[in-house]
Write a structure and sequence with these properties.
Mean pLDDT of chain B: 86
Largest interface: A-B, 54 and 32 residues
Mean pLDDT of chain A: 83
Largest sheet of chain B: none
Structural class of chain A: alpha/beta
Number of strands of chain A: 24
Number of helices of chain B: 14
Number of domains of chain A: 3
Strand order of the largest sheet of chain A: 6-9-10-3-11-12
Number of helices of chain A: 17
Strand content of chain A: 15-25%
CATH topology of the largest domain in chain A: Rossmann fold
Low-confidence stretches of chain A: 513-538
Radius of gyration of chain B: 22 Å
CATH superfamily of the largest domain in chain A: P-loop containing nucleotide triphosphate hydrolases
Shape of chain A: globular
Helix content of chain A: 25-40%
Low-confidence stretches of chain B: 1-8, 372-376
Distance between the termini of chain B: 8 Å
CATH architecture of the largest domain in chain A: 3-Layer(aba) Sandwich
Oligomer: heterodimer
Shape of chain B: globular
Largest sheet of chain A: 6 strands, mixed
Chain lengths: ~550, ~375
């Protein structure tokens, strides 16, 4: 539909209140999206961002308040109504049919037909027109099944799908959560192009820097209420963080001088193959001592996943050795490594770290089920496990504070706190933590960081893998930079700048001119006829 | 975490939500209501076919618990449905689709009869000898059923062969091979039908409480003990935790150090062992010999419906098995005491199964497709 020639905002939400039982998810929220702008909806996990947008999108009926689109009061009974009115939503979990091709996915439900048959040629033309208008690369793999695409490409398919259905207003729900930094940059370019063409975007995020980078206006939600709306140009991270959590957040942590002790974990000439048989870790060697955090920095997809899985015992080693307290543990199974005292906070908390439809008691046993007192002679002592779960919930401030809650009902930050607690309570000697704060709200990040530092001070050797430079710099005693499967350099966090780290992560020397540094390729995009893709901004 | 599926699936999602959220009591109520509803629809069909629905209904009740014999008949079938149902539930709970319970049931039962016949000359011909032979027969069934279940487990774990397909094919193989064996090498002397010889008189379950030839409370007790043992294994042991976790989320199981391949084999073996026990009870309590397995009941297949009805919970298999046992007994009673054709009875029984199992099937489908509940 063509936007009317008025100055009315694209979306105006007035006093939206939404309750789920006794829980007030949105409490009288006002929200205005001006035409042709990006409005970020910022808040911690569980602050009501998605609920608010689900009300707009017709997924929920509000208990109070009004919705106006282009100045017209509207009430959507279903997402289809919303779509017909030009409102599209890109969900955090993509709604694509994986075995079907990109083209089939884009036109699904809105297929152009001729004589009752799908007119594929017309569909192809339409989709290609959209792609060329916004300079999307989606048209280059229209006939590729979606399951072969990486997550960034899938997201662009979702956006094209919404545009194909005529969306003028697009809601992006945590779109960067699944993306690598390059892919996120690319998404921000796409968002710029969309607003340049007069479309209006809502950008749901809990990341301060992204909101500041990508949005024109930022509305902060806290506990379901809008606590402030600011122009991105005048806002600072500190101010936004204070709005989000309702108190000052310490960004610059005092780093304490520590004295590393005996070497606990030593890796020699490690080579590990990835899922497709390609060598993803190449001759990596390092040593981590007691009271030391080794940060592994790098653009995602440069072998970090394979490295941590090899350390945890989840992935076989092609060659090389892993030594724990001087003993070769390369041949030990995952279980034997857990029992030896190597703990692992997994990269994917949703599928690996927790069983989603178990309660926290059953989840507390995960990885512990051969260890006394939780299991003895093959039998599980559920009373002991429950006590353990209660302790984790209490000590690690897990909300809701009951071990009977289903894991799936916890927000990302609370899931992560629970996992961190469970792994720490193993009383390990070595901790391998992969992206321990990814997708976690500010308050929980602070909490998890404190715990990791406390563990280090208690004498553990910690390997911390993260794609967040800030996190790596704050916590690490040494930083190893991983690029294309190799440790290209190991640096002192106090003696290196962000720029130098960025260059190393891109596979360059520290001294090179940053202007011609091309960012490292993250994951290989699907097979395409026309050669490799630049990844970052061209 | 309130982010349900988008699009037209919203209503379906809400319905799925309600199904997933149902408590045990609600499920029992749903099952009861479904049974009543199915009987009402069935009676309409019976009336439409020109038979008296009132008489039909009376026959259903008489046949399932009208007198001691009817109760015994119900419990006889219940025993088998509970055992085979638990065998299915073990596997389904662990995310392994063992459709081969029928085959494991046949192999187990045949092994029981053959081992008893072989060992009978070595044991004294009294109650003690009979009991010893029964124990040996049951052990043979457990081993045979377990091995026959382990085979598709190994194929799935180490050769990536889909267990649904291999177990279905192994059913055919079990039925065909045992059928040939009872017709040829193991055919009893003087048997006119393709049957093995009868197991000796003193080798049998005692007639307690009910004085009928084909049911013994000892058989039912075996079934209930099996249920209890499996429930303990699933809920209170490491193996059970490994199995259920693998079934829910393989990556999480791997994270916790579970060997997925070994767990698959263990699951299939355990499932096959229980199916073997069912076969042994069938052979000893009901038949007393072994016949062409293509002609015996399809307990191993009906067990899938029993297990689904019980939401794959070992304890839930008991009431589910009782319902199926009652319907089975009623069906046979009506077949004998009324002129209603057996196809019509099967149709009505099928309606009950459909009505009762559909909600559970829907629930399971909802879980698999991710509809309902919290978004993942």
């Amino acid at each position: 539909m063509a936007p009317p020639e008025t100055a009315a905002p694209a979306v105006r939400l007035d006093g939206i209140t939404k309750r789920f039982g006794d829980v007030v998810a949105n409490d009288g929220v006002d929200f205005t999206l001006e035409r042709g702008t990006v409005h970020a909806l910022l808040g911690e996990n569980g602050s009501g961002k998605t609920t608010l947008m689900s009300v707009l999108y017709g997924l929920y009926d509000q208990d109070a308040g009004t919705i106006a689109i282009d100045g017209q009061p509207r009430a959507f009974d279903s997402p289809r109504d919303a779509m017909d009115a030009g409102v599209g939503m890109i969900h955090q979990h993509f709604q694509l049919v994986e075995p079907m091709t990109v083209l089939q996915n884009v036109i699904l439900g809105h297929e152009p037909t001729e004589n009752g048959l799908v007119d594929e040629a017309a569909a192809r033309d339409d989709v290609e027109a959209i792609c060329s208008r916004y300079d999307f690369d989606v048209d280059r793999y229209l006939d590729t099944p979606v399951r072969e695409l990486d997550l960034g490409a899938r997201q662009r398919v979702e956006i094209v799908k919404s545009l194909y259905r005529g969306a003028e207003i697009l809601v992006l729900d945590e779109p960067t959560a699944v993306l690598t930094p390059q892919e996120a940059d690319r998404l921000f370019d796409v968002m710029d192009e969309l607003t340049a063409s007069g479309r209006s975007l809502v950008f749901i995020t809990h990341k301060l820097d992204e909101a500041l980078t990508a949005a024109d206006e930022i509305t902060v939600l806290r506990d379901g209420a809008a606590v402030g709306t600011v122009a991105a140009a005048d806002a600072t991270e500190r101010e936004l963080a204070r709005l989000m959590v309702g108190r000052e957040v310490l960004f610059d942590r005092e780093r304490r001088e520590t004295a590393p002790g005996e070497p606990l974990l030593a890796v020699e000439d490690l080579r590990v193959r990835g899922d497709r048989g390609l060598e993803r870790v190449r001759e990596v060697g390092f040593t981590v001592r007691e009271r030391e955090i080794l940060g592994v920095a790098g653009v995602q997809g440069n072998g970090q996943t394979e490295l941590v899985e090899a350390l945890a015992g989840l992935r076989p080693v092609a060659s090389g050795a892993i030594r724990f307290r001087g003993e070769d543990v390369t041949g030990l199974s995952r279980r034997e490594r857990i029992e030896a005292g190597i703990a692992y906070v997994p990269e994917d908390r949703q599928t690996e770290g927790l069983v989603q439809d178990y309660d926290l008691v059953h989840n507390a046993l995960l990885g512990n089920h051969t260890i006394e007192p939780y299991a003895r002679r093959g039998f599980v002592d559920w009373a002991a496990v429950r006590e353990h779960a209660e302790e984790i919930v209490r000590e690690y401030d897990v909300q809701p504070p009951t071990p009977d809650a289903e894991a799936a009902s916890l927000s990302g930050g609370n899931q992560q706190k629970f996992i961190a607690g469970r792994e720490i309570e193993h009383d390990p000697d070595v901790m391998v933590a992969a992206h321990p704060t990814r997708g976690v709200d500010v308050g929980s990040i602070e909490f998890i960081h404190d715990r990791l530092l406390a563990l280090r001070d208690a004498g553990l050797a910690i390997v911390l893998v993260s794609s967040k430079l800030e996190e790596i710099r704050t916590l690490s005693d040494r930083i190893a930079v991983m690029y294309e499967g190799e440790f290209v350099d190991t640096v002192d966090p106090d003696a290196v700048t962000d720029e130098e780290l960025g260059l190393l992560m891109a596979g360059r020397d520290r001294g090179e001119d940053p202007t011609d540094a091309r960012r490292g390729e993250a994951e290989v995009e699907p097979d395409r006829a026309d050669g490799p893709d630049g990844g970052g901004r061209a | 975490m309130t982010d349900p599926d988008a699009g037209g699936g919203r209503r379906l999602d809400r319905a799925a939500d309600r199904m997933l959220g149902a408590s045990a009591v609600q499920r029992l109520l749903i099952a009861t209501a479904s049974t009543v509803l199915a009987l009402v629809v069935g009676l309409v069909v019976v009336a439409a076919a020109g038979y008296d629905p009132a008489t039909f209904l009376v026959n259903v009740f008489e046949g399932s618990f009208g007198d001691a014999t009817a109760v015994a008949q119900t419990l006889r079938s219940t025993t088998l449905f509970v055992l085979t149902g638990v065998a299915v539930a073990v596997a389904f709970r662990a995310g392994v689709f063992n459709i081969g319970v029928q085959g494991q049931f046949v192999v187990g039962g045949f092994a029981t009869v053959v081992s008893i016949l072989w060992l009978a000359p070595l044991a004294p011909e009294n109650a003690v000898g009979g009991a010893a032979l029964l124990v040996c027969g049951a052990l043979a069934a457990v081993v045979a059923g377990g091995l026959y279940g382990a085979l598709p487990g190994v194929l799935k774990a180490y050769a990536d062969a889909n267990e649904i397909i291999t177990t279905i094919m192994l059913n055919f193989i079990a039925i065909g091979v045992v059928g040939w064996l009872v017709d040829g090498p193991f055919r009893g002397e003087g048997q006119r039908a393709p049957n093995t010889a009868r197991i000796p008189e003193h080798v049998g379950l005692p007639r307690l409480v009910f004085d009928v030839p084909d049911f013994s409370v000892v058989g039912l007790a075996v079934a209930l003990v099996a249920v209890g043992a499996i429930a303990v294994v699933m809920e209170r042991t490491r193996l059970g935790y490994d199995m259920i976790t693998s079934g829910h989320q393989e990556a999480a199981a791997a994270f916790s150090g579970v060997d997925a391949k070994r767990t698959i084999v263990a699951t299939m073996t355990l499932s096959g062992m229980v199916a073997g026990v069912a076969g042994a009870v069938f052979a000893v309590m009901i038949q007393g010999y072994y016949s062409d397995p293509s002609g015996i009941g399809t307990y191993g297949f009906d067990a899938i419906a029993v297990s689904l009805l019980a939401a794959n919970n070992p304890l839930g298999v008991v009431p589910a098995g009782l319902l199926f046992g009652g319907l089975d007994a009623a069906g046979r009673h009506i077949g004998i005491y009324s002129d209603v054709p057996v196809q019509l009875i099967d149709g009505v029984v099928g309606l009950v199964v459909l009505f009762v199992a559909a909600p559970e099937l829907f629930r399971m489908a909802a879980r698999r497709t991710g509809l309902g509940g919290e978004d993942r």
